[in-house]
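COURSE: Structural Biology Practicum
ASSIGNMENT: Worksheet 4, Part C
STUDENT ID: 0417
INSTRUCTIONS: Below are two proteins. For each, the amino acid sequence is given first, followed by its C-alpha cell string. Answer the questions at the end about the second protein only.

PROTEIN I
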Amino acid sequence: MALVLVPAFCLLSGAYAQKWDVTLAPGPVARGAGACVTIPCSFTYPAGWTVSAVSWTRDWDQTVYHSDEARVHAAFKGRARYLGDLLHNCSLRVAGLSPSDQGTYRFRFEAMRNGSSDAWTGMPGQRLNVSDDRCQPSLGRQREPGPSLTCSVGAACPHLPSWYDRNGVRRSPGQTPGRAGATELRISPSQLDPGAALRCQVDGYRVECDSDPSQPPGTVTPNAPRIEVSWPAGKAALREGDGFTLRCQGAAPRPPGYVWSHGDLWLPEAGQDLRVDKAAVSDGGSYACGVWVSGPGWGYLSLSARESVQVQRAYAQKWDVTLAPGPVARGAGACVTIPCSFTYPAGWSVSAVSWTRDWDQTVYHSDEARVHAAFKGRARYLGDLLHNCSLRVAGLRPSDQGTYRFRFEAMRNGSSDAWTGMPGQRLNVSDDQCQPSLGRRTDPGPSLTCSVGAACPHRPSWYDRDGVRRSPGQTPGRAGATELRISPSQLDPGAALRCQMDGYRDECDSDQSQPPGTVTPNAPRVEVSWPAGKAALREGDGFTLRCQGAAPRPPGYVWSHGDVWLPEAGQDLRVDKAAVSDGGSYACGVWVSGPGWGYLSLSARESVEVQRSGRCQCLSPGLMAGVVVAILLLVILVNVGACYLLRRGRRQAGAEGAAEGAELSRRPKTESPYEELQGRTQDIYSQLDSPQAGSH
C-alpha cells in the first residue's frame, strides 16, 4: 500500500495545499468475491481550513464509512475500515467482498474556517469490480470408485487445496490424479462423527488484508447444523408413496452451500431442503447434512448428526428378503457391508434373526452363543427386528468366502414361522491390492521397504511409534514402494515402525490413521538353542534362534545380524554349521499387515558367541599376558638357583683343595710320588674288599 500512496502524497508539497481535490488510483480496481480491497486516497484543501468530517459512499446511496458511525449502511458495518485521518490521507479498506459491493466509491470531506463551512466530493470516484475469486474453493462429491469429497479451485489459481480436520491434521496430502486444482478426500459419511468439521485450505494463499494465512477473516466454522423432518399431516408413519422433506438448519457467517448424505453415500443435491416426493422403502435410512461456507483460499464444512427416516411397505403382506444383485468382492483384511431388507405379512412379530455362511457357519444370531467362533468379534448386525437386516464383517479372510443367507423367525397368535432369503449373497475374498508387504535390502545400504501392488492408487509412508513420518517420498524407480534407509543399530530395542497407505480408508473404519486391528504387536524376544550337553558353541556346531512374540494376526518375521538385515523371513533362524563369523548380535521383528497398513515391532538384541575348535583353546589377551609373566618369573628363578648352586660348588672345591695341601705338607719329603700313588691304590682295593652294609 505504501508504494501506491507515496506518489500521491508526494504531490502534497507546495502548490497543492491551496486546492480542493481528492486523488484516487487511475482506472477501476478488481477483486474476487470474499477478498479484501484497499482503495488508496489522498485529499487537499486551501490553507486555513480544518477538516471536521469525512465519509465514503457507494453509488451515492450507501454510506460505506462516516465519522458518525450511526450513518454507516448495515451492509458495510464491521467490514469497512477508514485507514486515513483528518489531514490528507483518505484510504479505505473493505473486507469480505460480495458481488453487491460492486460499484463506484466516492470520498467526501467537510471543512471549517472562521465559522464558515464547506465540503468537497472527489469525482468521478473509484470504480470497484467484484468477480468470483479464482482461489475460492468449491465443494464436490463423488460416489465412484468410493464415497469422496472434493475441494476444487479454478485452473488459474497458482495454489493447491488440502483437507484438514478440526484439529488442523492434514487429511489429504496430494492432488486427485488427472484433476488439476482439486484435492479429493476419500471418506464416506459414516466415517465422520456427528458434528464433525472439515476445512479445505488453499496452501500458500494469502488474502490482501490477512495477517494469518491459516485463519483468514470470517472463516469461523459454522455451528453444527441439525435436520428437521416433515411429512403429510395426520400420518403416524411414512409408507411407500408418501412424500417427505428434510431441512438443514444451521447458522453460518455468510450465505452457505449444503451437502447431503443418505446412508453411506453423498447425494448430488445441494439445497437447504431435500425433498422426496414418492418414497420407496429404499428411501428410508439415516440422513445427514453439512453446511459449506467458503472464501478466498478457504472453505469449511460442518456436519449434522444423523437423522433416521423409516419408510414402511404399503402392503407388508409378503415374506421376502431383498439383497444387492450380483456378488460382492473385497480384499483380504478389509471390511464388507451387505445391505439387506426383509418383509413379512401384517400381524407378525419378528422374534429372532440370523446370518449363515454356506449353511454350516452361523455368522450372526440373536442368541450370541450360537455364533461360530470364526466370526465372533468380527460380525456385526446393523439391522433391527423390523425390516433392516444389513450385516457387516470386518477383517475378512480367504475362508470367509462363500454365500451368506439371512433368516428370520416370526410369531403371531401363538404360532410361529420362518423365512430364509434365497439364493443369498455371494462374497468373494481376494488379496487386497493395498495391503503392504515388507522387504529389506543391503545395497547401497541397510534399508527396509514397504510395498503395495501396482493397482493400489495410494502410496505408502513410514511412521515411527509417535506418528512422526520417517520417509516422505517413494523409492526411485519402484512404483508403490517406500524405502526407509535405516540399519538395525539405528533402531532402539523394542522399537516399532508403521507403514501407512496415505489416503487409504477401510469401508468400516472411523479413524484413518488407526484402522481396526492395527494394534502394534508386543515387542518380541529372541530365544537361542544349541545341541544338548554343550556348555558353549564351537565351530561346526549348529544353533537355532526363535522369534517369540504375540501378534493379533498371523505375522511375518524379519531378522538382523549385526548391522545387516538378513534375507530369512521365518520364525526360526537356523545355522547348521556355525563359523566364528556367525557369532555376534541378533535381533528379530514381527510384521503384521492389513489393507492400508503394516506394523513392524522389533526385539532386543541377543548375543551369540561361537568359539574356535582344536587342542589349543584360544586365550584371551589378559590370560595370555599372565602366562607370559609366569614363564618369565620361572626362568628368573631357575637362573637364580643355578647361580647359587654354582657358587656353592666353587666354595666347596676351594675348601677341599686347601685341606689336601695341608695333608701333603705333613708327609715326609723323602716319599716319592710313585709311592704315594701306590699307597692310594691300596686304599682303594682295601675299600672294595671290605663288605658293605646291606649286601646280605
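PROTEIN II
(use this one for the questions)
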Amino acid sequence: MESTFVIKVNAIIESNLEDEKFGVNELADACHLSRSQLHRKLGELTGKSTTQYIREYRLEKALKMLKNNEATASEIAYKVGFNSPTYFNSSFSKYFGYTPGEYRVRSSLETESEVENTETPSKISKSKILTFSIVGLLVVLGVIFWQSSTTIEPETLDPIEVIATPTNDNVSIMVSVFKNLSSDPQNQYFADGIREDIISQLSKLEGVIIKSDQLPKSNLNVGSSNQSNPIKIEVDYVLNGSVQKFEDDIKVNIQLFDSNTNSLVWTSGFENKFEDIFELEKEISRQIASELDLVLGPDEIQRLEKTPTDNIEAYNLYLQGKYKMFQFKQPDFDEAIQLFYECINMDPNFALGYVGLSEWVLYNFFPNVPEAEFLRAREYINKALSIDENISDAQRVLGVISMEYEWNWNKAETAFKKALELDSNNLYAYINYAKFLRSIKGDFDSALYYLEESLKRNPVSYHAYVLSAETYFMKKDYDTAIKLAEKVLDSSDLGSWKMWAYWIQFLAYAEIGEDDKAVDLLTKSWELGIDSSYNIAPMKEAYKKSGIDGVFQFIVDLDTKNALLARNYQNAYLIAQKLAYLGKFEDAMQWIEKAYERKNSDLYQIKNDPLFNKMHNYKPFLDLLDKMGLGGYPIPIKP
C-alpha cells in the first residue's frame, strides 16, 4: 500500500504532467521540502531517485494512454511532459523494452491480460533475456571479450577529494577521465575523445558547469579521500565512464554520483556501431540532462543534434592526432601532423581538423614561429572558421594568433569573448583571455576573475594556479603570489609547473629583499632538472660575489649562451627581462628588437611585465610599445 506521502507526490506530478519544465525543484517546492530532503524521503519509500520517479511516473501514464489509444505516440510524448518525441521513444524503449510503436503492434496481437503483464518492466526483461540468449548462442565466440565489463568500479581518488558544493543556480559536474577497457591500450585516445565530446555536449546546456581536465587517470570517488592533504573539489555530481572499442562496436558505461548524498544516482550502458558514434554521444548527453532534471530548449536541442563531420574515419583520425599532439613527445608529435593531414584529406570540410593543424604549428615552433609557419597556422584557422565560425576552440586559437603573433589586440579580444560565448566551459579560453587582460590592458583584477572561472571548471589546473600567482606578483601582492605558488609546489608532480612556481617565489622574495630565501628557492627549482642542476654551484658563487644582481647576470650569461644554439634567439625576451631588471637598458633593447623581429610569442606581455618597470621612461622602449600598438603609460598626477 502506497504511503500518504507517495500518494501526495503522485497527485502533484499528475497535476503538472504536461509541463515539461516540472522537475525535481518544482516538486520539492510543492512538497515544502529541500531538494535533498525530497531525494532522501522518496528514496526511502520507493528506492528511486526523484528524477527517476518522475520520469517513470510519466512513462507509466504514457503506457496507459497508448493502451487506451488516446493519441499518437508523438502527441502522448508531449502530454506526459517530454519535450522531444525522440527522447520519449528512447526512454520508453529503455524502460519497457520496446518502443511505443512496437507496443501498438504487440497490443494488436496479445490478449488484454497479456497486455497488462507488459506493464511490469521486470516481466518484460525476462522475455528479452530469452531473445538475447538465442541470438547470443550464435555469436558467443565473437563477443566474450565484449561482455567482459558492464559496470565501473569506483577507485579511491588520489590526491583529490570530492565534496558537496553549496547550493546555487548552476549544476556542476566533475567528469573523470574515462577508462579504456579495450584490449588495446592505444585505444585510450578513443576513450578520451568520447569524454571530450560528452563534455562538449554538456557544455552546451544552460546552467551547467563542467569540471574536468588534467585529472588523475582514474575515475573519481565520491566522499572523503584517505590522503592527508587532498585537493578539495566542490561539485554537485561526479560522472565516471568506461569505453570499449572492439572492431566496429562501441560500448560506453556511465555512472552518475550525487556528491550531496554520496549515492549513485544513475548508471547505464550504451552500445552502438562506430559509424553511429555521434548518435551514441548525443543519447548519453540527453540522458544525463534528464537525470539532472535539465530542461532542453529548442536551441540546446539543435546544438546537441549538430555533428562535426559525416566522415567517421576522418573523426577517428582527428581524435588520434589530438591525443598524440598532447603527449608532447617528439615521435608522437611527428605522427600527429600526419594524422591531421589524413583527416582533412578524407573530409576537406572537417573544421576541427584544421583547428588541430593550426595548434600543431604553434606548438611545434614555439616560441618563435617562422613567418611562413605563422601564415600557415593562420590559414588553417581561417579555413576552420570559414567552415564553422561557431567552434569555441577555433575562436580561441584565432585569439592566440591575433594576440601572440599579429599583435591585433581588438581582434584577439573579440575572438576570446566569442570563444567563451560559444562554450562557457572552455578552460583555455578563460586562461588565454586572462593573459590578454593582464598583459595588454593591465587589468589584473579582471584577469584574476577569469583565472578563477577557469579553476571553477578545472580545480587542479596548475597552469591557472601558476598564472594566478604570477598575476598577484604583477599586482605587487607578493604574499599572495608566494602562497598560490606554494599550492602548486604542494600538489604538482610535474617538474615544469614546479620550476615555474619556484621562479615566481624567487622573484617575489627578491622584491621584498629576502635574497637568501630567493636563492634557496631558485636552487630547489634547478635541482629538478639534470641540466640546470649543474648551474647551481656557479650561481651561488655569483650570489656570494655580487648579491642578487649577480644571480640575474649569471642567468643572462647562461641564456645568452643557450640563445646561440639551434633555435637562435629563442630566449631573447627572457634575456631582455633580466637585463631590464639590472638597469642595462641598451643591452635589453637589443634583445627586445631581436624578439620583435622574430615575433617572439612572449613579447605581447612586455608592457605590463614587472621586470621591465625600470624602462617605463626609456624612449626607445616607449617607441617599441607604440610600434606594437600597446601605447605608453599614464602620466602620474602630481599632488
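ANSWER KEY EXCERPT:
Q1: The beta strands are 160-163, 171-175, 179-180, 208-211, 231-234, 237-246, 249-258, 263-273.
Q2: Confidence is low (pLDDT under 50) at residues 111-160, 163-167, 214-230.
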